Amino acid sequence: MKKLSLILLLLTGFQVTWAGLSISPIQLYIDKKQQRSTTVTLTSKELPEAKIFEASAVKWTQNEKGEDVLNPVSDIIINPKNFIIKPESSQIVRVGFPKMPDMDTQEGAWRIVFTEVTPVNKDVDSVSFLLNISVPVFVGKQAPIDLKITPVTRSGSTFLNLQNNANSHIQIFKISIIDGNKKEIANNSKMKYLLAKKSDQFDLGHLNIKDWHKYKILIKTDKNENPFEFHVQE
Fold this sequence. Notes:
The chain has 234 residues and is mostly beta strands. Helices cover 0% and strands 55% of the residues.
């Protein structure tokens, strides 16, 4: 029986290369006042063999726990939906809406999922590693950063609850706690999207901080090259 290992790539940065395949850009933005569609390019670099892909779309939301919820949709045009990428070649895929969703007040989020298909002539006794690449699509205006930070103690550990009050997403790369001597005493490098009006908690381990106003919180995001500086409002 054929054994398949499915690898899901949730992309961060401007371009990602994995197993000889690069994706650019890795975040897609559509503003209905400027454009109804955009493109993503998949390029093979030292790819050992041709790969077959199918593309589909899902609506992306988050529940109250900050967990991603993905629901298949058919209101996004993807062209082409099926394609073959040969070694040392590229494929441009256009993504757009036949009718633009109403996102005047709050950004909407989708994902385009590129799923590798096993060739029909593949050796049935071989082990295949199939790519499943998920590219975010954001529709609407990008709002200024607006985070509310609340420390939470649970089971002896300190968590920071980050509430994204903005009408658009933010991607968290790293959170650092800096003391009065400019020394980092804790950090969390969990990469996480917070969609508009959503929140999540970030574990900082065992900390004994009583006067949070004496500490700086540095948060590296996709909104700026340098980290943003915050203070807890007690």
